[in-house]
Amino acid sequence: MEKRTDIKNGTLMPMIPTRDLVVFPGMSVNFDVGREMSIQSLHNARNDFSGDVFLCAQKDINVESPEKKDMFRIGTIANIRQVIKSPGGVCRCMVRGVRKARLAEMIVHDDCYEAVVKPLPNYSKDKLYNHELDAVEREVRKAFEEYARLMPKMPQEIYTAVMGAKTASELFEAVAFNVPLAFIDRQALLEAQSAGEKLVLMMTILAREIDVLSLEKEIHEQVQSQIEDNQREYYIREQIKALQNELGEGGFDGSDEGEIQKYYEKIEELKAPDEVKEKLNDEVRRLSRMAGSSQEAVVIRGYLDTVLGLPWGVYTKDTADVKKAQAVLDKDHYGLKRVKERIIENLAVRALTPDIKGQIICLVGPPGVGKTSVAKSVARALNRKFVRVSLGGVKDESDIRGHRKTYVGAMPGRIINAMKLAGSSNPVMLLDEIDKMSNDFRGDPSSAMLEVLDSEQNNAFRDHYTEIPYDLSSVLFITTANTLDTVAAPLLDRMEVIELSSYTREEKFNIAKKHLVKKQLEKHGLTSSMMKLTNDGIYQLIDGYTREAGVRTLERTIGSLCRKAAREIVENDVKKVTFSAKNIPDYLGHIKYLPDDAAKEDQIGCVNGLAWTAVGGVLMPLEVLVLDGKGKIELTGSLGDVMKESAKIAVSYCRSIAEEYGIEKDFYEKKDMHIHAPEGAVPKDGPSAGVTMITAIVSALSGRKVRADVAMTGEITLTGKVLPIGGLREKTMAAFKAGVKTVIVPEKNRGDLDEIDDVVKEGLEFVFAERISDVLDAALVKPPENAVLPDMMGNPQPRVRARSRKTV
């Protein structure tokens, strides 16, 4: 676009129609430009017109595409000083008014606006005489002084600029540039020609603004006076009440007499201690002497409703049928033997001593093993009400004890609220995620829980809101946690901890077959005749598509199969969909988790170890390679400090038995050893790999192969003892899944066989080792008579006499 000035009626330049904005010559102002055509006009002005643009106001700010008839005739030629792009395509620009101009023609292009304008003088010659102009200036100053008195927080700089103006034009600009005026008034001031005319009009506008401000001030004073009168009346009423109480003449003052009588009747019927009834009667008497609409009366009503809503003396009758309770638990959950035994024992004790108090059970285990659902089943088995309190993320002590009712918006704590929801004084209360509580400057909620879970104190639990003792001793508290590391020691001391370990493969299979498949079929509108999941299909889901301690992911995966079956039935008009191990990958994709398979053949320096993880047991092979060197030991596989120490113990013990197994005595000076645990990205730690390391090192140094069908676990000492380990249930399941035939475990773990699944015990041969020699005898392949075995370096080693082994 080229700048053209050869227009008969004036000058052609870019134009921006403004809404609710009038710019005076000499005035700097910031405003936003949002319309695309106006933004293009802004760019045209900066690029081709030295930053000059014509600003003209719209008569109606709601018109989106204005034409000449929609515009005022007088506007301002302004110079663009700065443009900043804002988010959303809006441009923030700063302009300075240069000269007043008349709109001769408005040209609306497809992408911008242009205008033919005729410049006008900013101030024409005044028709007023000098003394008349002086009088107008004085009146404007007086009006502005009155305006400044009524206008709150008028800046001193503006007041000084107005009072110090020397000419009529300076006075006008000092007032017009700084006083917030209505849009139509600013346009009228712009269109006025001379400074005198502008000041006369300004004086009229200021007079109107002064009237409005005076009226606003008068209304404000009246409202303030009314508030003060109400407060004065309130204080007088309170004094009258105090005098009436002194004279014994207190009575109702605005409170409904029927409401007061109802409160007295409810308190009389309440099965609560006398001190509680006395406290409530005092509150009702206070309410009767208050104005019914007062804030304090509202607080007392809320307090009375809360306390009267608690289940005072309301108890449900526990079931006495232990067999029926056992049937309920067995129906709802598979496995969980220890938890069920503890609940049935509790029922048996209650049958003998119904008044037993102080039973707090803490269920600890990984996510998804059924801690929360066990609590619901306990409530069903006991025939009690069930209520759940979530403690995850609680940081404020007031969440447990409540807020004192003097605070605005006060309410009781979660314990009292739970009792109100339960509707009985002996519910099963689940305190979920008790290990997720934390503390900050508002207090320690775990400390507040000490009184709740202490059988010697909770018979008189005091909530800050109710301020009266409430008996929690009949409540059966069940808490859940994923770990006990974050639970405070005093709190842990008050609970009986029952650990729920991760589910084994067989337990997951039975849970899926008996519970999860039925639940998901019903949820997705299917029946057993429409979809079938075979046994090998369930095992495929457990082994290949889920790796977890619980069964939540397994349930979601079964739900995914249900959705795919529903689609097949609806789209392809299939009568029945059957999922098996063969076709599940066609629906769910490739197998995510590959199985831990044991070695197919006996090897030198490679041993099957067993490890425990949060999602179950795994087979952990351990490899040892012997090289010529200077006795350096290399440990790889992301091993932890404890496991590295086990490796050092294993090397030292191998030195002590070198002669017995035909190993060179100075191997620690001439040979380098590299000990590696595969899957190097997975951190590994713990002492239970000690026997595995010794077996692998002896095999590598002596040249004797390790049986491929043997897996082992156990901690070692420098004297050759095998110490007990944990997680035997999960480790043996891992060995069973991997196809191992024999498992070597410490002798002191013999009693843990009771917790192992029957299927696993039947499928494995157990070797119980007291010393490392028992492990080596069971794991190393016996060489033939008079055979000379080479070690991993090819050096011949003498034959070693075989030892007997202990089996079960």
Strand-helix topology:
Elements: E1 11-18, E2 28-33, H1 36-48, E3 52-57, E4 74-85, E5 91-108, E6 113-119, H2 130-150, H3 156-163, H4 168-176, H5 183-191, H6 195-247, H7 257-269, H8 274-288, H9 295-308, H10 322-332, H11 337-352, E7 360-364, H12 371-382, E8 386-390, H13 398-401, H14 414-422, E9 428-432, H15 445-452, E10 461-462, E11 469-470, E12 476-481, H16 489-493, E13 496-499, H17 505-523, E14 531-533, H18 535-545, H19 552-572, E15 577-579, H20 584-588, E16 606-613, E17 616-628, E18 633-636, H21 641-656, H22 667-670, E19 671-676, H23 690-702, E20 710-712, E21 715-716, E22 722-723, H24 728-738, E23 742-746, H25 758-763, E24 765-769, H26 772-779, E25 789-790, E26 796-797
Parallel strand pairs: 1-3, 7-12, 7-13, 8-9, 9-12, 14-15, 16-20, 18-19, 20-23, 23-24
Antiparallel strand pairs: 1-6, 2-5, 3-4, 4-5, 5-6, 10-11, 16-17, 17-19, 21-22, 25-26
Helix pairs in contact: 2-6, 3-4, 4-6, 5-6, 7-8, 8-9, 10-11, 10-12, 17-18, 17-19, 21-23, 23-26
